[in-house]
């Protein structure tokens, strides 16, 4: 999961935790592209 706007990272963390609780061995990693400069193009396709 990617937070593409950089605001409210806690919401993404809550969503990942909820998916983990509901789906057992499901792996969810919250990722904020603004914490990794010049790397977002690897994760986002052009609109």
Describe the structure concisely for a colleague.
By secondary structure, this protein is α+β, with helices and mostly antiparallel strands. 32% of the residues lie in helices and 9% in strands.
Radius of gyration: 12 Å
- Main sheet, how many strands, which sense, barrel? 2 strands, parallel
User: What does the average pLDDT come to?
Assistant: 73
The rounded distance between the terminal residues' Cα atoms is 18 Å
What spatial order of strands do you see in the largest sheet? 1-2
- Number of beta-strand segments: 2
Strand content: 5-15%
Helix content: 25-40%
The helix-and-strand class reads alpha+beta
How does the overall form come out from the CA principal axes?
elongated
Uncertain residue segments? none
Helix and strand sequence: EHE
The total domain count is: 1
The helix tally amounts to: 1
Organism: Klebsiella pneumoniae
Protein name: Creatinine amidohydrolase
Keywords: Hydrolase
GO molecular function: hydrolase activity
3D structure, described in words:
- The protein is α+β, with helices and mostly antiparallel strands and 47 residues long.
- It has one domain (2-38).
- The protein has one helix and two strands.
- The protein has one helix spanning 9-23, and strands at residues 2-3, 31-32.
- The chain has a two-stranded parallel ribbon with strand order 1-2.
- β1, α1 (9-23) and β2 (31-32) form a beta-alpha-beta unit.
- The longest helix has 15 residues, at 9-23.
- It is elongated.
- The model has no long low-confidence stretch (mean pLDDT 73).
